[in-house]
Protein 1
Amino acid sequence: MSINKELKHEFDAAPWNGSTKRYDIVKEGTIALVFVLVFTVGLSLLMGSPDDTPLTFKGWAVSNSDNFYATAVQELAGTSGTATYGAPYNKASDGLNLGPLWLQKWVGVTRPIDSVNDFVISPLSTQVLSGDIANALSTWNAAVETQKQAWAKAYDDAIKKVEGNLASVPAGAYGPVPALAKGLTEMAKAGALDAALLSQGGFFQTDNTKQILFFGDGSYLDDAGTAANLQGGTWGMMNETGRYPGQAWLWLYSFWYQIPPFNNEESKPIGANADAYIMAMMGVLSLGLILIPVIPGIRSLPYKVPIHRGIWRQYYETQGIKRRRK
Amino acid sequence: MSEMWTAKLRNKWQKNLPIEKLLPDDQPAYVASWIYTFGVLTLSALGVIIFSGIILAFEGPAWYHTSHVGKFVNSLHFWSVQLFFVFMVIHLWGKFWMAAWRGNRFATWMTGAVAFIASIATAFTGYLVQTNFDSQWISFEAKDGFNSVGVGAWFTVTNLGQMLLLHVAFLPLILGALTVVHVLLVRKRGVVPPIDAEPTSLSEVKR
């Protein structure tokens, strides 16, 4: 450090010995608090706050019965988004990676979810079922795993072949799967599935993971998100429902999802692993924010861009200090 | 007596942060811009957030769905958070353009920046515990980001109980502690002198 720089550093660090003025810190704090209170109360009275009613399985099964039914079949066949997700729910896939770092896979299954039993069989087992569905459940429980998979896979393929038009599904060796899907749809329509998915046979529960994941496997949640303009591709991460401001402070995180290669899932390796790359980048950028004072170039910007001349205009004028080019 | 830990701590505190610094009645004349008000405005908004948050905590996360009073308190909480971030971001930009880390103020900058990041985490968990459609949507979407880097194995955004505890207990404690340290550092170090202001002689520095 040169003598001048050292001197300047000591000057900046030393208690101010120049001219001062009166300052009532308590009064300033009180005025600021009153100002914020008045502003907040005014906005609250005028605007309220967002409160769109949460979606329910009853709403899904009633409004789009076929989609719910087809999703139930996917859960049984192990082809749904949850069933094929990977860690931390299961080992069905390796998940995303950051180049050679397979962090998602390496942490393993810490929140195990078995879409067949957790989403379909266990909830159905909590109900008093009609004869055909009770029989289907018994048949399913008595069958071996390979048989269960063969029934469910055949029915899931058949539904996909007719693009979800259930009336057009040809007859086939589907075993008890159609009856089980029908039973779960009726259960959802009656409003019994939401609580059954949460409780999983217990009493106290505060973990909604199974409900949320099951929702995401169908089109109901996705359609609602699109209608509310909340999709990630349209800055959804920082949007709020209705006319309310959302998490605008997530703008930089949302920004990456709007540009290539992050907005193209087909683009490998970055687009296909966009979530992981964006999280890592935001981690690095956050560290960068903390360390700005030691990052060459960025730490010099305040000297080069004369915004400080406006902030301390009065001081510079009274002291007759001209700008120095650093 | 002087060997006592308590006495040592008290002496150190009194040396570094005497009451005149903690509650000053004067300040450098160069503190003459509206930009300086955004620090105290941020603190004030945080005060309203904590006050409205405590009321909401007493009644539970679903109270505001069914009560007009609850809806009003929830709105206070919501808007004070919005104002908090507006004030804080302006404060942060202001401090950046002042190069406010000069003169041994790196720790002041660092605690402020970490508090900003902690605020984002706290607000994010707040959006997850709204128990409305938005929290359903955010938790479903956000889980992929956290899962993709392994964090989701422990930080489960779809777990309302976990998010609620983090939002009302753990994260406010962290944010509160960072804020207290940040403010104490500001009081200890004082407001950074203007860029381009330099001592005219060594005697001006060596006081």
Protein 2
Amino acid sequence: MSLIDRYIAEVGRHLPEKDRSDIEAEIRSTLEDMVEERRHHATKSTDDEIIAETLEQLGDPQLLASKYTPLKRYLIGPGWYDVYLKTLQRVLLTVLPIFAAVTFILTLTENPLDFINAVGEAVGGAFNVGLQILFWMTIVFVFLERSDEVPNMPKGADTRAWTVAQLPKLPKKRQIRVAETVLNIVSILFVLIWIALPFTLARLQGNPVSVPFLHPNLWNLWLPLFFVILGLTLILEVFKLKIGNWTPALMATNVILSLISIIYIAALAITQDLVNPNFLAMLDNAAGSSELREVVAWTIDISAAVIAGTYVWSIVDSVRKSRRLSK
Amino acid sequence: MENDELVQNMVLELRRGILSIAVLSQLSREQYGYSLLKALSDQGLEIDQSTLYPLLRRLESQGLLQSDWRIADESRPRRYYVISTQGKAVLTKLKREWSAMVETMKQMLS
């Protein structure tokens, strides 16, 4: 009988405590009925073979046990799944860029020249933080799934009859995507910090450990102006986020601010030396020639052109969408 | 070949739907698991054993069946199931639904 004992023990192992002995007894009695039946019909097989055949007919003990206890065989069910995905998405999109930006800046203030290292730290750190968030968020939702609260599921018979009045209004369509403005805001903050921090640190320490990238003369007029423009842009982005559509006022503000920015960038790139001469000298020392200096100059020209280009595009885009909105 | 599998799955689904009615209908006289299985299969309804026994317990927990352990006839103790009063009421309604469904399907398929 040891095969039967082993089979029943295996079923019992997967059953909840309170029903276990009862179900085990029932399966045993059924098995005995089945074996007896087989003995009458098949004369040539040995007892062990008959038992083995019977057990195989009843099938995988774990499967049998699972039919007695419809346990949840999933981590997060359909009731929570959408909420889970949406929350995860929102948290990751908020936390990761900020984390990456802060890491980048902090690493850069330690080693002002080491962009690659800073990018690596930022990306690697964000990846790790992302994994942590994913893990803990999943754990939380697994527990929620096993609590009795289930949102977004069709309610039982106890609710009042559904009427069309309960239909939610169609969500307003946004012309300006949330992700886009959030990204812009984060970038602006990041640029502000990146420019302001090394100088502030240098001034606080009195005796600068690192060589600032930007030309010190810029602080007289151009950088304060830059901060003003960037500040205004920041405010504009916040309004874009709040309003969501290219209303006439928003479009006009965007056009004016973009034009100012283009003029500023062009004037800055053409008339001013942007980079700290000490920094350039350091590059020359490092390279043994003026090659790096030229790379820096080119990079600045191209960046200025690209940035001016995005402002032009922003003007065109906002005017076009604003017209579409008024139709 | 693909169709065969599809058909088989659909037949399984159909059968799963009628199992409860079939089981309730056969338990006006008390039966133990294995005898019920044979009674059903004698009348042409083959049920997987690993489906039938859990189903019996579920119907009992819903109050449609009653059961007790007993030693009948010869030797071993067995669990005997029989339909309850509530089960009879439910079965009457189910029978009515079933006839209506069969009528509908007949018309649709003719």
